[in-house]
């Protein structure tokens, strides 16, 4: 199985941590859903750099692969990646949480290129992804649709209706990636609404399923480059992640699902992220 080279791994790692710093800088105006943004960022980084067929110069290119961030509150990660890819000027990021910003707390496709669908109300992303994928089948297009779900979000009934529909319509051009960080806004997901075992549930609905470490760039790459896993079956990737990955004092704590922070804490967090980048980078190879 093809693996990323050390040079590619280092490049992805450096990008992901540079974008963590960008996210922290965006939060200088006071708040943001940093926990899920940091837990899903490595996955989204690999998608846009190694997997998706897309062109920042033509955001509505008909043959592009589609990406939907169903858990729209994690949009800090998506904004950072889209800016890094050249969909819009990076300076726009620093207007986050200001009046009339183009990067609001939930993504809006009407004001920002690269956004496929406005998500915020949980449970909508996968049903929309199904519609896009079915349209692609009817139009005889070969584009694929990728959607990132939160594990807490998967308590929404509309998710499981969509899981059933995708299998029924044999949508093997749909890939759902569950960001399983184990936490949601007010505690452990398993304590609030236990949706486990994800793998067996997706399989029972007729999906092909793989489980990976959601911070292992090689695992993410090798898994996503091989979708669909089975012909005529949608693919599910259960990605085990860490809430607020890369920020030591906040990792695996539900308090940082949404962080209303002070400016001096942002500076402390940037130093922490930079230290983590150096430590992890030294071990790549």
How does the overall form come out from the CA principal axes?
globular
User: How many helices?
Assistant: 9
- Taken together, the total number of domains comes to 1
CATH superfamily: Thiamin diphosphate (ThDP)-binding fold, Pyr/PP domains
Estimated share of beta-strand residues: 5-15%
* First-last Cα distance: 17 Å
Major pleated sheet: 5 strands, parallel
Q: Order of strands side by side in the largest beta sheet?
A: 2-3-4-8-7
CATH class: Alpha Beta
Uncertain segments of ≥5 residues (pLDDT<50)? none
Radius of gyration: 18 Å
Structural class: alpha/beta
Number of extended strands: 9
Order of helices and strands: HEHEHHEHEEEHHEHEEH
**And the CATH topology?**
Rossmann fold
Share of helix, binned: 40-55%
Mean pLDDT: 95
Question: Can you describe what's shown?
Answer:
This protein is an alpha/beta fold. It has a single domain (6-282), classed as Thiamin diphosphate (ThDP)-binding fold, Pyr/PP domains (Rossmann fold, 3-Layer(aba) Sandwich). It has helices spanning 6-26, 34-51, 75-85, 125-138, 157-168, 189-192, 198-204, 217-224, 263-282; strands at residues 31-32, 66-69, 145-150, 174-180, 183-184, 187-188, 208-213, 235-240, 259-260. The strands form three sheets. Strands 2-3-4-8-7 form a five-stranded parallel sheet, sandwiched between helices. Strands 1-9 form a two-stranded antiparallel sheet. The mean pLDDT is 95.
Overview features:
two-stranded antiparallel sheet, Rossmann fold, 285 residues, alpha/beta, 9 strands, globular, 5-stranded parallel beta sheet
């Amino acid at each position: 199985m093809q693996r990323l080279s050390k040079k590619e791994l280092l490049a992805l790692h450096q990008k992901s941590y540079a974008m963590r710093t960008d996210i922290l800088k965006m939060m200088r105006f006071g708040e943001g859903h940093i926990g899920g943004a940091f837990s899903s960022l490595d996955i989204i980084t690999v998608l846009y750099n190694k997997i998706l067929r897309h062109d920042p110069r033509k955001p509505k290119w008909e043959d592009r692969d589609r990406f939907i961030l169903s858990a729209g509150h994690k949009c800090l990660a998506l904004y950072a990646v889209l800016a890094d890819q050249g969909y819009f000027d990076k300076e726009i990021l620093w207007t986050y949480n200001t009046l009339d910003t183009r990067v609001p707390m939930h993504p809006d496709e009407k004001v920002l290129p690269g956004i496929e669908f406005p998500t915020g109300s949980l449970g909508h992303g996968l049903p929309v992804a199904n519609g896009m994928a079915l349209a692609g089948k009817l139009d005889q297009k070969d584009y694929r649709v990728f959607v990132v779900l939160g594990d807490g979000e998967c308590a929404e009934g509309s998710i499981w209706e969509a899981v059933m529909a995708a299998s029924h319509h044999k949508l093997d051009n749909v890939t759902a990636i569950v960001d399983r960080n184990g936490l949601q806004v007010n505690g452990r997901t398993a304590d609030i609404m236990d949706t486990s075992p994800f793998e067996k549930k997706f399989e029972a609905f007729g999906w092909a399923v793989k489980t990976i470490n959601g911070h292992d760039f090689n695992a993410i790459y090798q898994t996503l480059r091989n979708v669909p896993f089975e012909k005529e079956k949608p693919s599910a990737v259960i990605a085990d992640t860490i809430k607020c990955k890369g920020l030591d004092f906040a990792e695996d704590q539900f308090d940082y699902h949404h962080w209303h922070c002070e400016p001096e804490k942002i500076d402390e967090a940037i130093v922490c992220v930079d230290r983590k980048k150096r430590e992890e980078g030294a071990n790549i190879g």
